[in-house]
Amino acid sequence: MSAVSFLICDPSPALQTFTQQLLSGYGFDAAAIKTTSNPHAAAEIAASMNPDFLITDWFAKESLTGIALHQAIQKNQPTCQFALLSPEDDPNYVLEAEQAGALFLLAKPFTADAMRSSLRAALEQLAPSHPVITQKLSAVTSQPRPRLGPIQIPSLPQFKAGDRVVYANRTEVVKHVILRRGELVLQLDGIPGMVEASKITRR
Length: 203
What we know:
This protein is α/β, with parallel strands linked by helices. The protein has helices at 13-25, 39-49, 66-74, 91-100, 112-126, 131-142, and strands at residues 6-9, 33-36, 53-57, 81-86, 105-107, 164-167, 170-180, 183-188, 195-196, 201-202.
């Protein structure tokens, strides 16, 4: 039974973490849940992982919007499904999301329960083509469900692509921001590899 992969793309590291925790709660492999803060980085990640499900911000002001990101991913992964997080509750966003085939659209700000229920419904829609999802959903449903308190989302420093920062006593420019297994790491322009956010300060 093949694994299912997920790609979460949103400017908020806290929202990335929350969504990642929800998926991990179903028993999906953490290594198959990738996160990033901007659509261009997401496109690069998707090229190597071919995600089955994309959850993305609308990115209305980016040259690569959330819908365009999904369309780009589908060139290599035609079966990839997606969901959108919009900046506001606007009927035009709803119509455009429906026309693009989004499994759900949540307008920010939304509650944790709204994300939980929307994600559950999306997984149920994906299940017929991914037997492993059916197995995960059944396992969770068959277990007693204790009343859980709110998920604790870590407070992470806020960085975005283009920020000027100080690393190793030098001024650098942030190229990509990625949350990797709960740890915020940055790719700096001209610096190979990833750098932990804790080693970087704002300029």
